[in-house]
């Protein structure tokens, strides 16, 4: 027995230093890995995204993996790139989280992402992806968590024009029939000057003069006049419709509709109206077969395309669906709408001094087939693109462009909330 214990002590004296050395090496490796991960999360760049270094030229022969942190089954593989006819298509979209380490881009749909942190690897780019307005996302976990708020995201992807990748996929666009690069809103590389010349119109004489000026311009351009002889216009006997399910908004768009209804008929459908139907075909695979769309096209001349948030560039699919199905949208929101649709294709409620003056203008258009038809002349040159998928092309192209400088957002909440202020006081407008 004594010999056994002496032998055990001898073995321990040999093994103990060896185990200590192994543990020390493992701890050193863990420390280095944690340091590298931390460095990958916190590149020291300014809010202007200054250049740190350049990678070698891109190699489009390699397939880039783009990981959805939240699964969207309808955009798997390379389908969105093929559908959009992108110039660069060798990117693979996947929701498989086991491929995280191999992923080049990680896309976080921040509206539904749980509040927990995953470390970015040195070769990866994390993308802040959001399609809702700042008003509706101010309390999302990733904006509250300091670990994801500061120095976490490399790129941004949203509907807003100041995003790294501008995406209109869920919303829409107006595209030229002859030149796909001519579109509303313009592609990010196109410089379309702002034409936000909103002015308050306060008399019916002023309204008539405005209509005459626009009509004279149309005749000078030589555009053929779309008339009420078209089948989709002939049956319109009702004035204004609104399909709405969000009844209490910060900007109180419902109050504007209520005031407008004092002077003209406004038929309100959905949770906020008499008819309990869903909102305007948000999830319909074929909008043309949607009951609400058929009602718009067949019966109504105007539609209240009022946004639930008044934020920069926030123009939703309801605006484009209204244009697509031959009804004139009346807009009320925080965007410069002249960037989002051709001239004389919509009516901006903020152009009028009051809901009463807007009502007078609608009655004027209702009384004249020619004046009303003037709001469809843009269809001679443009068509609606739903969905507008150019943003996916840009994302894949950027994934391959290794000459792009390293970039990180020092404070993603500042960029999304503070730098894109939304209006919450309706008294500034009506």
Automatic annotation (TrEMBL):
<feature type="region of interest" description="Disordered">
    <location>
        <begin position="178"/>
        <end position="202"/>
    </location>
</feature>
<keyword id="KW-0472">Membrane</keyword>
<dbReference type="GO" id="GO:0032580">
    <property type="term" value="C:Golgi cisterna membrane"/>
</dbReference>
<dbReference type="InterPro" id="IPR038577">
    <property type="entry name" value="GT10-like_C_sf"/>
</dbReference>
<dbReference type="Pfam" id="PF00852">
    <property type="entry name" value="Glyco_transf_10"/>
</dbReference>
<feature type="transmembrane region" description="Helical">
    <location>
        <begin position="12"/>
        <end position="36"/>
    </location>
</feature>
<feature type="domain" description="Fucosyltransferase N-terminal">
    <location>
        <begin position="62"/>
        <end position="167"/>
    </location>
</feature>
<feature type="compositionally biased region" description="Polar residues">
    <location>
        <begin position="189"/>
        <end position="202"/>
    </location>
</feature>
<keyword id="KW-0333">Golgi apparatus</keyword>
<feature type="domain" description="Fucosyltransferase C-terminal">
    <location>
        <begin position="234"/>
        <end position="415"/>
    </location>
</feature>
<comment type="pathway">
    <text>Protein modification; protein glycosylation.</text>
</comment>
<keyword id="KW-0808">Transferase</keyword>
<keyword id="KW-0812">Transmembrane</keyword>
<keyword id="KW-1133">Transmembrane helix</keyword>
<comment type="similarity">
    <text>Belongs to the glycosyltransferase 10 family.</text>
</comment>
<dbReference type="InterPro" id="IPR055270">
    <property type="entry name" value="Glyco_tran_10_C"/>
</dbReference>
<keyword id="KW-0735">Signal-anchor</keyword>
<keyword id="KW-0328">Glycosyltransferase</keyword>
<dbReference type="GO" id="GO:0008417">
    <property type="term" value="F:fucosyltransferase activity"/>
</dbReference>
<protein>
    <recommendedName>
        <fullName>Fucosyltransferase</fullName>
        <ecNumber>2.4.1.-</ecNumber>
    </recommendedName>
</protein>
<dbReference type="InterPro" id="IPR001503">
    <property type="entry name" value="Glyco_trans_10"/>
</dbReference>
<dbReference type="Pfam" id="PF17039">
    <property type="entry name" value="Glyco_tran_10_N"/>
</dbReference>
<dbReference type="InterPro" id="IPR031481">
    <property type="entry name" value="Glyco_tran_10_N"/>
</dbReference>
<keyword id="KW-0325">Glycoprotein</keyword>
């Amino acid at each position: 027995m004594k010999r056994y214990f002496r032998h055990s002590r001898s073995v321990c004296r040999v093994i103990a230093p060896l185990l200590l050395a192994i543990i020390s090496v493992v701890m050193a490796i863990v420390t280095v890995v944690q340091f590298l991960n931390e460095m990958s999360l916190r590149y020291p760049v300014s809010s202007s995204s200054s250049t740190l270094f350049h990678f070698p030229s891109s190699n489009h022969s390699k397939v880039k993996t783009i990981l959805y942190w939240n699964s969207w089954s309808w955009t798997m593989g390379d389908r969105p790139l093929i559908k959009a006819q992108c110039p660069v298509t060798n990117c693979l979209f996947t929701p498989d989280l086991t491929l995280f380490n191999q992923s080049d881009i990680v896309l976080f749909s921040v509206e539904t992402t749980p509040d927990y942190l995953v470390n970015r690897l040195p070769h990866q780019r994390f993308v802040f992806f959001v399609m809702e307005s700042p008003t509706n996302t101010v309390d999302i976990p990733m904006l509250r968590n300091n670990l994801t708020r500061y120095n976490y995201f490399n790129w941004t992807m949203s509907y807003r024009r100041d995003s790294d990748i501008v995406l209109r996929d869920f919303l829409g666009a107006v595209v030229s029939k002859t030149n796909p690069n001519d579109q509303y809103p313009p592609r990010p590389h196109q410089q379309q000057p702002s034409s936000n010349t909103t002015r308050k119109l306060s008399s019916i004489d002023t309204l008539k003069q405005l209509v005459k000026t626009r009509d004279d311009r149309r005749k000078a351009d030589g555009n053929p006049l779309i008339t009420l002889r078209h089948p989709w216009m002939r049956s319109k006997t009702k004035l204004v419709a609104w399909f709405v399910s969000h009844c209490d908004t910060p900007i109180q768009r419902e109050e504007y509709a209520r005031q407008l209804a004092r002077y003209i008929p406004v038929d309100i459908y959905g949770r906020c109206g008499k008819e309990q139907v869903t909102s305007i075909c948000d999830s319909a695979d074929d909008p043309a077969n949607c009951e609400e769309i058929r009602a718009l096209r067949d019966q109504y001349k105007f539609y209240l395309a009022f946004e639930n948030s008044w934020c920069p560039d926030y123009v939703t699919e309801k605006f484009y669906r209204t244009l697509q199905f031959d009804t004139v949208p009346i807009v009320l929101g925080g965007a410069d709408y002249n960037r989002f649709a051709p001239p004389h294709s919509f009516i901006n409620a903020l152009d009028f001094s009051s809901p009463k003056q807007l009502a007078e203008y609608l009655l004027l258009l209702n009384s004249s087939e020619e004046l009303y038809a003037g709001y469809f002349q843009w269809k001679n040159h443009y068509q609606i693109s739903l969905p507008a998928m150019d943003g996916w092309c840009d994302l894949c192209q950027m994934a391959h462009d290794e000459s792009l400088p390293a970039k990180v957002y020092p404070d993603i909440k500042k960029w999304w909330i503070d730098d894109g202020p939304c209006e919450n006081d309706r008294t500034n407008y009506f």
